[in-house]
Structures are given as C-alpha cells and as structure tokens.
C-alpha cells in the first residue's frame, strides 16, 4: 500500500488468460503438480498418498460431533475399499450422468454452508467445470484427484489422494446418494485441505465457499430488515436478476437460543442451517400472482411444511402447468412464498462473477481491479474515522469518467474488501476489524483570468 496519506491508482491485477493464477492455468497449491504426480504414480505402479494432507487424525481435526472413542475408530479408505466393505459390487465412479444437487447428503461435519454452495454450483455447469474437472475417472487409476478454487485473487489447483474418512464402513462426512459416486466427497476433501482439516470446515457462511467457486462478487441481504422496510419488490427483482446472471444463491436460518444447534422447528426448517436457492417463479392463484422461491436443504431431506410446501393444498388451486412445478418427494427441495421466506430465513447470499445481478444489466462488461496490501501498526493503520490518526490510513482516489445519465439506477463501481487469513487452519485464524470509508470529492474547474 502507498505511504501514509497519499493516493494511488488501483493496479489492475486481472490475470491474463494462460498466465499462472488464471482460470486456464491455476497456480499449484502447496507446489503440487497434479499431472506430474499422477504420471509418476502410474510409472511406478503405486497409488498416490498426499503427505501434505495425510490420511490420519491430523487431517480430520477435532470434530465436536464425534466422541473420542469414535475418533479412534475412524478409518481412511479408498473408494474401492469402501464399496467392498459395504458389499457393493459396483466399481467406483467419479461422476455418473452429470453432477446434480440431488447427488449427496450431509454427514458428521457441520459444513452445511459448504454443501449448500455445492448445491448452488451444480446449477451453473460452466462454473462447476472450472471447480470440478469432469475428465477425472477411476480408469487408469493412480489414487489422485484435483480440484480448483479461487483464493484471494488467483485460481489454485488442489491435489488430494482419495483416502476418505469412514466410520463403521460408512463415509464420515458428505456421501453421494448414488452409492458408487465420489465426486462430492473428493471435492469436500480438497476444500478441507484448503481449510486445514475437516474440523476446520465446521460452521461458516455460504458466501465464503461461493466466493472460492467463482472469484466473483458476494453480497449478503438481511431478509427480515428488507421485508420490514417494504423492499420485497426490490428483493424479488434482484433474486430474478441473480438467477438470470448465473449466480450462486444461498440462504440461512437463525440459530435458536445461545447454542449453534441444528434443531428442527415445527415448520420443518432447521435452525442455524444453510440452504441453497435453486429457483424462483410466479404462479397464478385465484387471479393473483404469487412469488415463490425454491429452496434446497443440503441434508437431502427435512423440508418446509407450510404454505406452498410439497404437500400443501394450495397447489390444487393453480393451473396444471404451475402444479407441475411442485414435486411431492422427500429430497430436501421445496417452495416457499417470498413473504414466508423473508420471515423464516435470516440471511440471503448472492455471489456472481460480476455485479450485473444488482440491476439486471447483463450486457455491461465490468473491469476487475485488485490491489494487495496491508495495514502496518504505527505506520498505516490509522483506525476508524473517529480516530485522530485516521488520515494515516492508505488512501485511494477513484474517478468514474463515464456516466450514463439515461440509466438512473446504473451501478458504476462496486468495492469489496477481503482480509486474507494467516497461513494455517481456517478456524484458528484471527480476523481483525477492517473497513472502508468512502468520501465524495467534487472536482471543480477554475478559469484563471490574467488582467493587464
């Protein structure tokens, strides 16, 4: 960052296609080259074992959902061995008939925020292919797989072996419903490696994973505040725009009481739980339009039981075409009216590659600019605006040179501040309070008259 009190132009750090850190050429996480490691294993006739994320309790971490005696019984098994232990004669498969939000269900790890993000990701096939290379199979097998995440300005390629934690011959964490499909447990392991351990994935916000799946702009909406302020129409428009802009959309319920416990309320909704939003629609009910939001529980079960739920009688009073939008099956997915959605859910998260979802202008091309720096104690960490040392904070001057006066709601600039964690475990990181203060600077043109 610049010297105290000075201004600097923002440096464009967008990675050119093909350069290291770009989507087509992600950086090697922990300096591990997938292709080279795989080729070495095939040449030696051995299966890959990842020494940087070993198949033992160090990578599992201290899971609060497991008792100490259960931790001692955790076995790390490769997919073929897992199927053999389960008396399943099928061959292990990476992905069968495409990736779907119905492929998996949550396990012992409290990472619903991450699984809700995966559910949203499956709806965006291009982004999914960026994160999950779909050319991976168990043929020409070497026990090695890889996945890609966007981490603080660059894409990284994360290599793992396929040892997965099991308890009583069942996958300890996320499991695929297909029996022999393993793309989700392997993806989860790669993200656990980035976080530090499986235990470090416990508790979080979907916006974190969505950001790592897209490298885009993430925004959070306090739903009850939006609804009480009478902004339902604006919220609906942004939801619709976000769906059209290929965004990842998730939401979450409030916790009940002082403890973060996933109790099931009388409504069928789970407290302190993350969900994905998989669609929006309008149906005609006795001549009036009703706005509905489709929501998915990453458990793969346990659904809302109120108005417009799978078994609601309201579906009998709409057209046949609208009735077909409702599927009465216990798969974790259900519809809710927008008003109920705002009442029973606490937060909504939208993450998109660009900010077009804000106003629905899908034609606008945004220029991404990133600047890396840090606050230094006693030098460039001046505190908030009420502090006498505030002026020592790094300062930047941004000038918008082109304004479209015909677009009254035109969004010209969006600023996002990210704080990088220290190296190590996600749950042990120390995040300092940070923020941005924006000032409008009016630039006037003066004409100097020289009298003689």
TrEMBL record:
<dbReference type="InterPro" id="IPR001300">
    <property type="entry name" value="Peptidase_C2_calpain_cat"/>
</dbReference>
<comment type="similarity">
    <text>Belongs to the peptidase C2 family.</text>
</comment>
<dbReference type="GO" id="GO:0005737">
    <property type="term" value="C:cytoplasm"/>
</dbReference>
<dbReference type="InterPro" id="IPR036213">
    <property type="entry name" value="Calpain_III_sf"/>
</dbReference>
<feature type="active site">
    <location>
        <position position="112"/>
    </location>
</feature>
<keyword id="KW-0788">Thiol protease</keyword>
<dbReference type="InterPro" id="IPR000169">
    <property type="entry name" value="Pept_cys_AS"/>
</dbReference>
<keyword id="KW-0645">Protease</keyword>
<feature type="domain" description="Calpain catalytic">
    <location>
        <begin position="47"/>
        <end position="354"/>
    </location>
</feature>
<feature type="active site">
    <location>
        <position position="273"/>
    </location>
</feature>
<keyword id="KW-0378">Hydrolase</keyword>
<dbReference type="Pfam" id="PF00648">
    <property type="entry name" value="Peptidase_C2"/>
</dbReference>
<protein>
    <submittedName>
        <fullName>Calpain-1 catalytic subunit</fullName>
    </submittedName>
</protein>
<dbReference type="GO" id="GO:0004198">
    <property type="term" value="F:calcium-dependent cysteine-type endopeptidase activity"/>
</dbReference>
<dbReference type="Pfam" id="PF01067">
    <property type="entry name" value="Calpain_III"/>
</dbReference>
<dbReference type="InterPro" id="IPR038765">
    <property type="entry name" value="Papain-like_cys_pep_sf"/>
</dbReference>
<dbReference type="GO" id="GO:0006508">
    <property type="term" value="P:proteolysis"/>
</dbReference>
<dbReference type="InterPro" id="IPR022684">
    <property type="entry name" value="Calpain_cysteine_protease"/>
</dbReference>
<feature type="active site">
    <location>
        <position position="297"/>
    </location>
</feature>
<dbReference type="InterPro" id="IPR022683">
    <property type="entry name" value="Calpain_III"/>
</dbReference>
<dbReference type="InterPro" id="IPR022682">
    <property type="entry name" value="Calpain_domain_III"/>
</dbReference>
């Amino acid at each position: 960052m610049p010297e105290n009190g000075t201004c600097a132009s923002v440096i464009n750090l967008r990675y050119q296609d093909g350069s290291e850190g770009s989507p087509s050429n992600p950086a090697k996480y922990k300096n591990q080259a997938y292709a080279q490691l795989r080729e070495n294993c095939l040449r030696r006739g051995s299966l890959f074992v990842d020494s940087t994320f070993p198949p033992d309790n160090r990578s599992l971490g201290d899971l609060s959902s497991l008792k100490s005696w259960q931790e001692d019984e955790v076995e790390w098994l490769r997919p073929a061995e897992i199927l053999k232990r389960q008396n399943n004669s099928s061959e292990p498969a990476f992905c069968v008939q495409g990736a779907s939000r119905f492929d998996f269900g949550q396990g012992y790890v409290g990472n619903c925020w991450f699984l809700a993000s995966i559910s949203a990701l499956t709806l965006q096939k291009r982004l999914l292919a960026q994160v999950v290379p779909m050319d991976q199979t168990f043929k020409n097998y070497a026990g090695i797989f890889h996945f890609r995440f966007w981490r603080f300005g660059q894409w990284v390629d994360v290599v793992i072996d396929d040892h997965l934690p099991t308890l009583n011959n069942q996958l300890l964490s996320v499991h695929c419903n297909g029996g022999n499909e393993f793309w989700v447990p392997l993806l989860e392991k790669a993200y656990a490696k980035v976080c530090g351990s499986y235990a470090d994935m416990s508790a979080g916000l979907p916006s974190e994973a969505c950001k790592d799946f897209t490298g885009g702009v993430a925004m959070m909406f306090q739903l009850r505040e939006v609804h009480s302020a009478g902004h339902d129409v604006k919220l609906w428009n942004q939801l619709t725009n976000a769906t059209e802009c290929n965004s990842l959309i998730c939401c979450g319920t409030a916790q009940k009481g002082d403890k973060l416990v996933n109790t099931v309320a009388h409504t069928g909704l789970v407290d302190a739980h993350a969900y994905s939003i998989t669609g929006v629609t309008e149906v005609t009910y006795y001549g009036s339009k009703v706005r509905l939001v489709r929501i998915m529980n990453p458990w793969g079960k346990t659904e809302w039981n109120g108005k417009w739920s799978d078994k609601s009688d309201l579906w009998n009073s709409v057209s046949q075409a609208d009735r077909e939008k409702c599927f009465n099956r216990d798969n974790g997915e259900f519809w809710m009216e927008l008003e109920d959605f705002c009442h029973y859910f606490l937060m909504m998260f939208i993450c998109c590659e660009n900010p077009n979802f804000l106003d629905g202008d899908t034609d606008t091309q945004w220029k991404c600019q990133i600047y890396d720096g840090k606050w230094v104690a006693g030098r460039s960490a001046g505190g908030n605006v009420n502090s006498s040392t505030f002026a020592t904070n790094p300062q930047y001057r941004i000038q918008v040179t082109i304004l479209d006066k015909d677009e009254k709601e035109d969004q010209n600039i969006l600023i996002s501040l990210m704080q990088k964690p220290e190296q190590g475990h996600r749950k042990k990181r120390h995040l300092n309070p940070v923020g941005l203060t924006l000032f409008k600077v009016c630039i006037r043109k003066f004409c100097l008259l020289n009298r003689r």
